[in-house]
Input
Amino acid sequence: MRFLSETSSDGVREQLFELGEIPGVLWTPEGALDARPLVLMGHGGGQHKKAPGVLVRARRFVTELGFAVVALDAPAHGDRPKVEEYDRIVTGNRARIEAGAEPAELIAGFQARVARQTVPEWRAALDAVQQLDYVGAGGVGYWGVSLGCGLGVPFVAAEPRIRAAVLGLGGAAASAEAAEAITVPVEFLVQWDDERVPRAQSMALFDAFASTEKTLHANPGKHGEIPAFELDSTLRFFSRHLG
Output
């Protein structure tokens, strides 16, 4: 793990790093010295580790809860190089969708393919940041919607250090089998008028989680229109399970 830069503002320290060839960012309270809970945050498709929504959530986790937050660029996103294979799949999927194909199945197949790469990457990142004195080996949570859900469900299923997860805007076609292995508390976000993930697919994914504590948060609106107030619920959720 190699740190590239460090800045601080309004009580939040931001450190850009590389783990091998994987670019990432770590946010912690300014001046933090001791161990604290950690949230791993997956960004949406076409976004990156410092997308505006990621930044807003990360800063609130740090300033209001005292947590550490890590985000990584997904393959072919942010500061990572393009991947010819993924570009071909995306281009082909767009053509099929324009021709009338159901997008959920195509998106699911792509996310499952990428997750085979990202699960070990996230596990390596978790190993690395937990070696830092000001992060440590405390409670770990995962937050991710859309692409962050499609890649996050297999990761949460595979990683026993995760104690709680906020997921959403994903469907069973991509993640149902992995979801059956998840037993930690889950808060699941659904947009009732989602144009990308059919409502039935979202309901099926929620049903597949084996967690005894799982909560469905459904709001009207399209795929990218999660209400801002859901972040307040997310903070309470992680505080309860990690704090």
Observations:
- The two ends are 26 Å apart (CA to CA).
- The chain has seven helices and nine strands.
- The chain has a mean pLDDT of 93.
